[in-house]
Amino acid sequence: MLAWTIYISFAGALISALLPKDKPMPARWFALAVAVAGLGIAIAGYAAGFGQARQVFIDVLWVPSMGIHYLLVADGISRVLVLLTGIAAVAGVLFSWNVDLRTNQFFGFYLALIGGVYGVFLSGDLFLLFVFYEIAIVPKYFLIAIWGSTRRQYGAMKLVLYSFGGSAMVLIGLLAAYTTAGSHSTTLADLAHAGLPVSFQMWCFPLVFVGFGILAGLWPFHTWAPTGHVAAPTAASMLLAGVVMKLGAYGCLRVAMGLFPHGLDPWGFSFIGIGSWRDVFAWLAVIGIVYGALVALAQTDFKFVIGYSSVSHMGFVLLGLMTLNQIGLDGAVLQMFSHGIIAGLLFAIVGRVVYDRTHTRQFAELETMHLARRLPFAAWAFVGAGIASMGLPGFSGFVAELQVLVGAWRANPWWTAASGIGIIVGIAYIWRALQKAFFTDALPTAHTLEAEQAHPFSPITWPEIAGVALLGASTLVVGLYPRILLDQIEPAVKALLAGGMQ
Amino acid sequence: MNYVALFRATLPETALEIAALLVLVVDLGFMRKAALQARIAVAAVLGVAGCAAAVAVLPLERVGLQGPDGLDLLATGGTAAAAQIAILVLTALTLLLLIDSSFTRNPGEYVAVVLMAAAGGLIISAAQDLLVIFVGLELLSLSLYILTAFAKKSGKSAEAAIKYYIFGAMSAAFLLFGFSYFYGLAGSTNLWKIEVAISQSGPSPLLFVAWILVVAGLGFKVAAVPFHFWAPDTYEGAPAPAAAFIASVSKVASFALILTIGTNWLMVGGPIEGEKSALEALMRQHYQTWPKLGVILLIVAAASMIFGNLAALAQTSVRRLIAYSAIAHAGYILLGVGVFPAHSGQGSALKFFIQSIGPYLRLNEAVLYYIITYGLTTIGAFGVVGVVERAAGSDRMDAFLGLHKRNPILAAVLLVFFLSLAGIPPLVGFWAKFNLFAAVLAVGAGPIPFTLVALAVAFSAVSLYYYLQVLKRAYVMPAADESPIRAHPVTLAVLLLIAAAVLVLGCFPALLQSWIASFFK
After folding, report:
1. Partner B contacted by A207 (CB < 8 A)
2. Collapsing DSSP states into helix, strand and coil, what is residue B339?
3. Is a pLDDT exceeding 80 seen at residue B75?
4. Looking at the partner chain, which of A66, A135, A168 has a beta carbon nearest the beta carbon of B461?
5. How far apart are the C-alpha atoms of A432 and A436, rounded to whole Å?
6. pLDDT band at A211 (very low <50, low <70, confident <90, very high)
7. Torsional class of B402: left (φ above 0), alpha (ψ -120 to 50), beta (otherwise)
8. Nearest-CA distance A84 → chain B (Å)
9. Is the pLDDT higher at B277 or at A144?
10. Which pLDDT score, from 0 to 100, does residue B442 have?
């Protein structure tokens, strides 16, 4: 059933591109309908998946001569991420309600991107996964380059070249694995059981991990993320942070770690305390957490703060993957979901609710605008989202990051200690952004009050309220009752660990 | 010499030549007073009919045409038939692009020359003998020089033709010189006989000289570095349908020829029968002599990939960009020809040979798959360039500004073609690349093939940048001029057909793959 998320998204993309160019309304409603249908299927599929292990939806031989299967499967991890994609897609449409330029094309590219993302999360064949992964690259370029803001063509090209560079690394690893395995099948399960030699896994693992890691914001290959996020239109930055970065992390987990588990084994020697690729990537993740947070603290552009915070939070996902224990991996998957929702919310508030009214994102200018009084909805929504992002209890971020940290403690206490710094700085940069953008001390003079009354901001529209409510409710529900996701994640992770990551 | 067999084997070429004469008669005789547009349409349709007739009479089963010494001159059918059918289909597509063009007042002559070039292409795809190869190649090349110069009012066209001709004449001299050395070494002009004779006499410096000369001649045909200098100028100056023909049909034919030579020399071609011990000895001799020659092809391949992709980054003319990207694609394909099974010397050479046949044939299929789909996509790209050029007056990148507004269909098909050339799934270019690289790795074990494949994959990532430069102008950047661009319905239909093929073959790659594989049975 979940397979239909892919088909309706691509069909929707095609139809949307054919809708009339100059009438935005039908395109909006159509895109919303497609996204809601996708979410509906995702929810139904998720609900049907409780207590189920691995569901196979379709398995046909696609290219017989090479043993490539059109194989769509879902386990708990896939179902969680499909659910996330559904929520992010609906929210993204709601927050792009004000796109007037070439609306039909906008939603065409948008739905094509969504379709590719659904496809990656549901693929059970390495080849198919790669195809969907690449399909998701091109729409991103056009979404950012056509509808973006600040240095959009630069940001779009940088993002695409980083993505394509990463996928070239993955493709090399894929070709090598396919040839070395000598099996005539490219399904993930068959390749994992092909008995790839340890020496091969040792060099192929880092290649593929970094290839996917680029899209997950792995430090030091993260530099596409802030510029891309800032340049992107609101919906695209929501999707970029919300689901596209998850594609990278999912690839790291499913492909790099799933096919080459021995790549994580110790090298047999250690250099300044680093004795395996696991240590290398865990420390890179920790550096990403701290570095992202520190850089976010120094930004003058509101959106850059959120952009760098994404790098920091994705560090938790990668760190969780490297713990290789149940609780750490649970946390990593939960963090993928949680960050997808929270980052989407933050980008929506900054990009749509604030920027589209103030037309600036510079703190220096926002400070003079008294947004807490003039846009109370934005201010309080950001307070909520900020608290969730800081990882306060009651929101999804808390459960996720706590589990990652506990898992990391069990693996190597220094990882936890170092990433703790990132959490503290995380509170600081959200606080700073909150204060600078919304709650400034400067009292308005009578003159500015008059000017503000003469040019009021356009009122908050219903799609914005609906979008904030959807994302806010999601993070709250998961924060208050995390079992709703963990019940599906835990058995899947347990199966992964028991089967040697496959 | 059996003239019935000759007639049977060369029926498609005969059909093309008859069609060429018919076009001339109709155009210069009956249609002399008609309007130019009508003459162009009639000539193109007659040309397409000629191609269709040639496909209809094409021998699918293997027909060997023996010379006086009992050795094959031509071997039609089998693998050659796949390339020949592709050549004819692609020729027909380029002829249909003619309908919307106005560069010539002599459409009959143009179509006749195209058909003769296609006949040359058919001959070299099936040739098994150095002399036949040379004759076919010259028929093809001379026709291409004429086609390049066909826009008589354009100085660029004449300039391009002169450059093409001078380089072509030089490389033909190289090729003939190399062939003469091979004849001197082996005492025969038959490819298989040459392989056997040279294996028996062992490697010699002269063999390397001869091989380098041949590689120079063939490298010119496929525009591989360092024999590529003609390509950007020719692609830029030739009339669009002629450029499309040069970029597609001529490439398919030349690679089919290179495959024949590779199969005969680098692998072991020809009839393999006889006593086991004698065969074992023959195979050992083969593996001691020929595999060393493949290195030169690999060097050319690597140089083409690197240089083609890097030079394309700096282009502002879309035609030159396509030319440099063609050089890069030739590099990828040459990987598939330069990599072949090489026996290490341990164990039975015969056994190794028999085991390596399967993967090697798969590699040949992959090369054909690549070149056919590449040719198809390039015709589409030139079709779009041709229309835009007529409207905007130049093929600079800026001529493509705002194409999505000026003609959404053209912009959409351009998107499909360029993304396919860049190797983005689910378009056919991606499958061609994956198929080729996987087949290369299955044949050539070891670090060198792997490094080259990694290089190729890395440079395809680079190539996306320059393809996006054009698409960026078509879709992203604001247009200076927003007046609609009109394209002839036939051109649009052809372009849509090609785009649909690129998409469908990309989604169902097994369709074309099993079709090609059926010729290798």
Report:
1. no
2. coil
3. yes
4. A168
5. 6
6. very high
7. left
8. 25
9. A144
10. 86
Nearest alpha carbon to residue B240 among B370, B94, B340, B119: B94
A65 and B460 in contact by Cβ < 8 A?
no
Whole-number average pLDDT of chain A: 85
Burial environment of residue B482 by CB neighbours within 10 A (0 to 12, 13 to 18, 19 or more): exposed
Do B325 and B466 meet the contact criterion of CB atoms below 8 Å apart?
A: yes
Which pLDDT belongs to residue B243?
A: 92
pLDDT grade, residue B269 (50/70/90)?
Answer: low
A175 closest CB neighbour out of B430, B437, B460: B437
Q: A171 — contact with chain B (CB < 8 Å)?
A: yes
Q: What CA–CA distance (Å, rounded) separates B471 from B286?
A: 49
Which of chain A's residues have a Cβ under 8 Å away from the Cβ of B514? 64-65
Phi, psi torsion values for A271, nearest 5 degrees: -125, 125
Q: Is residue A442 pLDDT above 70, yes or no?
A: no
Q: Which of the residue ranges A388-402, B233-247, B375-389 would you say has the lowest mean pLDDT?
A: A388-402
B99: its two tokens: 């309908």
A131 touching chain B per CB within 8 A: yes
Query: A145 is written with which tokens?
Result: 């380059």
- pLDDT, average across residues A102-118: 89
Measured in whole angstroms, how far is the alpha carbon of residue A42 from the centre of its chain?
A: 17
CB contact under 8 A, B468 and A142: no
d(CA B177, CA B42): 42
Structure tokens at B243: 């450029």
Report in angstroms the alpha-carbon separations of A135 from A116, B311, B446, B478.
6, 27, 31, 25
**Local confidence band at B249 (pLDDT 50, 70, 90 cut-offs):** very high
pLDDT over threshold 70, residue A398: yes
The answer to whether residue B22 scores a pLDDT higher than 60 is yes
Nearest to B286 by CA among B340, B247, B235, B215: B340
More confident residue, B270 or B173: B173
- List of chain B residues whose C-beta atoms are within 8 Å of the C-beta of residue A135: 424-426
Q: Indicate whether A364 pLDDT > 80.
A: no
Among chain B residues, the shortest Cα distance to A129 is held by: B425
What phi and psi, each to the nearest 5 degrees, are found at residue A62?
-95, -55
* B430 contacts on A by Cβ (under 8 Å): 131, 134
Chain A contact probe: residue of B407, B428, B476 with most A CBs at under 10 A: B476
Q: Which residue from B419, B427, B434, B394 is spatially nearest to B506, judged by alpha carbons?
A: B427
CB distance B460–A146 less than 8 Å? no
3-state secondary structure B224-291: CCCCCCHHHHHHHHCCHHHHHHHHHHHHHHHHHHHHHHHHHHHCCCCCCCCCHHHHHHHHHHHHHHCH
Chain B partners within 8 Å of A157 (Cβ): 465, 468, 472
- With bands split at pLDDT 50, 70 and 90, how would you rate the model's confidence at A192? confident
- CB contact under 8 Å between B472 and A145, yes or no, is yes
Pick among B418, B437, B477, B503 to test the A interface (most A CBs inside 10 A): B437
Residue with tokens 């950012």: A144
User: pTM of the prediction?
Assistant: 0.91
Q: Closest to A161 (Cβ–Cβ): which among B465, B475, B509?
A: B465
Closest to A313 in 3D by CA, of A220, A254, A242, A252 = A242
